[in-house]
Each structure stands twice: as C-alpha cells, then as structure tokens.
Amino acid sequence: MKKIDFEQLKSTPNTETLSILDESGQVVNQDLMPDLSDEELTELFKQMVWSRVLNERSTKLNRQGRLGFFAPTSGEEASQIGSNFAMTTDDFILPAYRDVPQLVQHGLPLYQAFLWSRGHVDGNKYPDNFNAVPPQIIIGAQYVQTAGVALGIKKNDKKTVAYTYTGDGGTSQGDFYEGINFAGAFQAPAIFFVQNNGYAISVPREKQTAAPALSQKAVAAGIPGIQVDGMDALAVYTATKAARDWVAAGNGPVLIETLTYRYGPHTLSGDDPKRYRTSAEVDDWQRKDPLIRMRKYLTDKGIWSTDQEKVWEDEVNKQIDEAIKKTESIAPQKVSDFLKNTFIDTPPTIKAEIDAYTAKESD
Amino acid sequence: MAKLSMVKAITQGLDEEIKRDEKVLVFGEDVGRNGGVFRATDGLQDENGEDRVFDTPLAESGINGLAMGLALEGFRPVPEIQFFGFVFETMDEIAGQISRTGHRMGGSRKMPITIRAPFGGGVHTPELHADSLEGLLAQTPGLRVVIPSGPYDAKGLLASSIRSDDPVVFLEHMKLYRSFKEEIPEDSYTVPLDKADVKREGKDITLVSYGYMVQESLKAADALAKEGIEAEVVDLRTISPLDEETIINSVKKTGRAVLVQEAQNQAGVMGQVASIIAEKAILSLESPIGRVSAPDTPYPFSQAEEIWLPNKDDIIEKAKEIVNY
C-alpha cells in the first residue's frame, strides 16, 4: 500500500496490510514514512521500551502480590503505543482492560493505574480535564460509548477525536457493530481500533468470523477500514495519524485493525496459553517483535544505542518503584464513600446507610 | 392552566426542559420526524431543531451507549427506549455502565441521563412490549426508577429527572397516556424525586402502589368507602430508592397494608415495601400484609390480559380480607 485513500476504503475492503518497517528494521514503504523528527522517533521507541519494562515489572509485582489484575501487553507495543502516539491529550480515550499503557501515556499517573489494578477506587478518580474513562471490562461497551463521546465532540464543535480499543473477539459483539454504525450514521469523529492478537482468551481468530479481515467489517457500516501490521510502530502511527487528520476534519469515523500478538497469557488470573497455542507459533511472532525492528532502525540511523536503552530502562524501573510505593501509602477505601458516590443527590435511604457506615468506620 | 393527557404533559415537559437547558438532547427510534410511536415527542424536532431532537439507528444498546458518551462530553441526554420490553437489549449500558459510573469513577464523573420508556399492560400489544420489568432495575444501585401515575406528576417528575445529575429510568404506563386528563400549569414545575405521595387519605387501611395501579387503587378506595372502609392510597412515584417515611407513616396510622403491583409477585418492588413495613412498623400492624400482583408467568398473550392483570376488584377483595382478618 503506497497511499491511504479513506474515501475509497469506505466502500472497498482493505486487502493489503499496511507496513513500513520490516522485521529486520528496513524501510520497505518510503512513500508512507511518517513525518517524525529524530526526537519524536526516539520518544516513540522510548515509550515502547517503557511499556515492555512495565509489562515485565507488572508481571513480577503481580506474582509478589503487590499488583492485582493484569492483562499482559508484551508483543503489542507497536499497536498500543504506535496508535496512541498519533493522538493528543485533547482527544478522548476509551480503553479496554489491556490498554493501560495508552491510558498512562494519555496522562493517567502510573500510580493510579496500579491502584486500579489493585482494586482501589482512587485509581479511577479522574480530573475534569482528563479526557478518558477507566479501562472497560465488558467487551464492546466502550464501542457504543465512543460513538456518544464522538457525537458530543461534534456537537461541541471541537476538532478532536474519540478513540477506543477492542480485540479480535470484540468484533463479534453486537456493541461492536452498533458502535461503528452509530458513529458512521452521525458522521462522528471516532477512531475504532481492533487489536487483533489472534486469540480471544483461547478462541482463535478463525473461529470468530468467516470474514477474511476484521477491517472489512467497517465497510458494512459505510466507514473506512484499514489493516495494519501491528508489530510495526511506524505503520500503526502512519495509519492512525492519517485517520486522525481525516476524522478530525469532519469526514466521519475510521476503523483500524492491527495485526499483533500477545506473548503472555490473556491475564495473570490463571490463563495457560499452552492449552491453545504452540511455542513454535510464539517463536514465529517473537521474530516479528516490534521493539527489535524499531531498535534496529533507530540504531542504524545513529540516533539510539544499547547504552541509552540501559539508562532509559533504569529510569523506567525507578518510575515504577516510585509509583508502586505510592500506591501502598494510599488510605484504605470506605463503604461510606462508595455510598456517597453512588448518587450525587443522596436519597434518604442511602443517607441512612451512610450514617450507619460512618459510625461503624469511626469505631 | 389546561387539561392535558399524560402523553401531552410529557411532550410539554420535554419541550420546556429542552428550552431551559441547551445541553438537553432528546433522541431515540422514531422520536424525530415521527414524534415517537406514542407521539410523546410530537413536534419537538420542528420546534427545537434536529440538533436537539433526533432519530437514532435502531439499536437499544447503541442508544444508551450514545447517551453515556454524550454525558461524558457534558450533555444531559434524554434517550427513549421505544418499549421497555426491549430493555434486555440494553441492560449492560443501563445497569452495567451508566448507573455505576459515579461509583466506578469515585464521584469524578456524573451521568445526568433520563431514559424514558413506555411500559405496562392492557393495551393489547405484541409480546415484550407491555411487561413490567421495573424490578430488574429497582435492584440496580445508582439508578432512580421513576413511574408517574398521571399527567400532573408525569410532567413534574420528568422535569426533576432531567434536571437531576443522577441517572433516572422514567417509565410511562401506556394505559395512562390518554386515559384521563388533569390540570397542568403552563409554567414549568417540579415534583420531587424520592418522595411518595398520599393520593387519598384514609384511616382503615393503606393501599401502596405505583403507576397505573394507583388508578385501580383509587377506584378500589372509592368502592371500599361505600362499604365504610376508608383506604389511604400511597403512590410510590419513585420505586427505587424508596421513600420509606411516607410508607411507614401511613401504615402506622392505618395499621393495615395491601401492596399492589402490576408486575409479577416474585422479588417484586412490593416485596421490599413489605420488608420495610415488617422492619419498621410491625408493631402497628393489626393484620398480615396483603399482596396483589400479577401471577408468576411471563406477560400473557394479549387476549388473556384481562384475566392476568390485577385490577380494582382484586384490590377490593384483598383489602376486605385484611380489614376483616
């Protein structure tokens, strides 16, 4: 693919996967090379390294009992970070549970992401100007909400976009289609990502649908769909940046499918990937690793080195240490606070429960 | 002042709220050009523009997802679910998403959404239009479930619901839409949420109900009065969270209670009312609590509605049984 023609993609399923950087770090598609400075390219890679380190540390912290729910992200850095890198903090993100890296890069303090993982409400207390909702647990619910946020953005005459993520399994949900269809019908500024990592927990992509590509589902809603090499951060960035420009200009929503892979289990809550995939398959995908090719590209370009990476990893580890330490100093939750937040205008029956719990909690 | 039917009072109320607050948006299936299948939004699009009153694609989850997203962008959405029997299609957006946002985000976001829907039996609809499914949502924390029993309350409760920063499910009984009229002030007014209303005073027995069953209870009270039994009729108006005080005060006064709901008996709203009375007014009771409700089957085929739905005769019979216990 040498050119992204969103207008044409509205009616024609995308049959060619967009890629820019091949597995060996060579640019194979100069026409679509993003216009990023050396600083921006290294920043993109630094965020990918950050995400990889965060994944490794989160896994360890989970095993130590210092972190709770965690959905591993390793292998998906190009898809997650590459897409988010094309957005601005004025854009509105509606993430799913694996999309914590994007949420943090969008502005959520890391310690709050950790609090969410640990099951503490303070992780989800967002300032008014933070354009985000917490990670969605119900597959697809974020898609219909994204149509609403996008319509709100349009009605408010803003030049921003709403963006959301689901996986390959998510495209089987009714809410997936309702979301893209509503956004299309209202020509609302939304970008829908499908991070196709091959499995919905254990069910392979082939069992979800007879559609040869998930991106082609966009055509049914009359919106452009594009399939991108999700192990290639430059390709994901290019597609997203072009989509964002097109969407923010008032042309309606876009769907982007990224072909990616998760190296780890579905979550750390008991999933064993050996039950449904071979180690040879994992090895194949690890040869396509998004960090390896990006590192090679930047090193060849002379703007990155293993020394720099070591320094950065140490810095990231320090940030993670500080964040996890901060979560451990947060005051425990109170039922009376939950009750206060259940309604804004507290009804009398809830008031009585607040009084009862407040008395109990002050004992 | 003009005498208006409930559906006209609702239309007028919606129009006033749209004009009062530029963030109010009214939308759903057929609510625009068509003015809604019951004409509840009749003329609102012409009057206020398509930006404020608009049709959506046909998908209930999409409609309430749209509402949630619009609320996140600062709007005050008033989506319509065309018939409440279609609520199963959108249970996640209502009970899994909108109602728990305040809790989920520690009070850092609000969901000022009023979801309107017609419901209720006796008007010969096809399956899954008339069901009384309010109990499903009455058990959902963070949600107000409001059910008016007539035109005046409908307009005032609707204004309070739309102005509320909390999510409200506002259920309009189809049989009440055009069955009678009441004097409706032309100026905007509110009727408080979370507050039951004594629709008729009496000293011998309390009839607690909501929605259309309030009208049947009032008819029953008229008939009972002719036999020397003075029934007090309590209209819950908000079925969740409940106004316990009004219920308890009435039962303490009369010493007897018959609880009336159109919904099936099992785990119904009146089970909660009975629990409140048992917990907080049992020493005032002179006889057991009586229940009048529909039988525990799915909503019946329309030709069987008459034998299935509770009515004033059932209420009279049960009230006499309780008074003469």
Automatic annotation (TrEMBL), chain A:
Question: What keywords tag this UniProt record?
Answer: Oxidoreductase, Pyruvate, Thiamine pyrophosphate
**Purpose:** The pyruvate dehydrogenase complex catalyzes the overall conversion of pyruvate to acetyl-CoA and CO(2). It contains multiple copies of three enzymatic components: pyruvate dehydrogenase (E1), dihydrolipoamide acetyltransferase (E2) and lipoamide dehydrogenase (E3).
In terms of CDD domains, this protein maps to: TPP_E1_PDC_ADC_BCADC
Q: Which domain of life is it from?
A: Bacteria
**Keyword Oxidoreductase: yes or no?**
yes
Q: For this protein, what reaction is catalysed?
A: N(6)-[(R)-lipoyl]-L-lysyl-[protein] + pyruvate + H(+) = N(6)-[(R)-S(8)-acetyldihydrolipoyl]-L-lysyl-[protein] + CO2
| Cofactor(s) the record lists | thiamine diphosphate
Q: Which GO terms describe its biological process?
A: branched-chain amino acid catabolic process
Protein name, as recorded: Pyruvate dehydrogenase E1 component subunit alpha
The annotated subunit structure for this chain is:
Heterodimer of an alpha and a beta chain.
Domain Dehydrogenase E1 component residues, every copy: 46-332
Q: Which organism is it from?
A: Ligilactobacillus pobuzihii
| Listed GO MF terms | pyruvate dehydrogenase (acetyl-transferring) activity
Supply the EC number(s). 1.2.4.1
The record's section on Gene3D superfamilies has: 3.40.50.970
Automatic annotation (TrEMBL), chain B:
The record's annotation in CDD domains points to: TPP_PYR_E1-PDHc-beta_like
Q: Which GO terms describe its molecular function?
A: oxidoreductase activity
Name the SMART domains on file.
Transket_pyr
Q: Which residues form a coiled coil?
A: none
Q: Name one Pfam family in it.
A: Transketolase_C
Q: Which domain of life is it from?
A: Bacteria
Domain Transketolase-like pyrimidine-binding spans what residues?
4-179
Query: InterPro entries from the xrefs?
Result: THDP-binding, Transketo_C/PFOR_II, Transketolase-like_Pyr-bd, Transketolase_C
According to its UniProt record, which cofactors does this protein need?
Answer: thiamine diphosphate
User: What keywords tag this UniProt record?
Assistant: Oxidoreductase, Pyruvate, Thiamine pyrophosphate
Which Gene3D superfamilies does the UniProt entry name for this protein?
Answer: 3.40.50.920, 3.40.50.970
Classification via PANTHER family: PYRUVATE DEHYDROGENASE E1 COMPONENT BETA SUBUNIT, PYRUVATE DEHYDROGENASE E1 COMPONENT SUBUNIT BETA
Please identify the protein, giving its name as recorded. Pyruvate dehydrogenase E1 component beta subunit
| Species for this entry | Ligilactobacillus pobuzihii
